[in-house]
Specification:
- The structure is a single chain.
- The protein is an all-alpha fold.
- It has a domain at 28-61.
- Helix content is 95%, strand content 0%.
- The chain is built from 1 helix and no strands.
- The chain has one helix at 3-60.
- The protein is rod-shaped.
Length: 61
């Protein structure tokens, strides 16, 4: 393997490594965003249940 093809191979591996980092970061960011959305949905359900309970208790008092 001559010097020119070695440099090209190193460059190709470097570009591939950068692309893998970008893909990994994007996947991780999407997972974090999905988890935040799930947490917000669960909190919304809990708040709605509390509001309903307070409304029921308030109307019977």
């Amino acid at each position: 393997m001559d010097e020119k093809s070695l440099k090209i191979t190193i460059f190709e591996h470097f570009i591939g490594f950068l692309l893998n980092l970008i893909i990994y970061y994007r996947t991780y960011a999407l997972e974090v965003q999905n988890q935040a959305n799930i947490d917000n949905d669960v909190k919304g359900v809990i708040y709605t249940a509390e509001d309903s309970l307070l409304l029921i208790l308030g109307s019977t008092a």
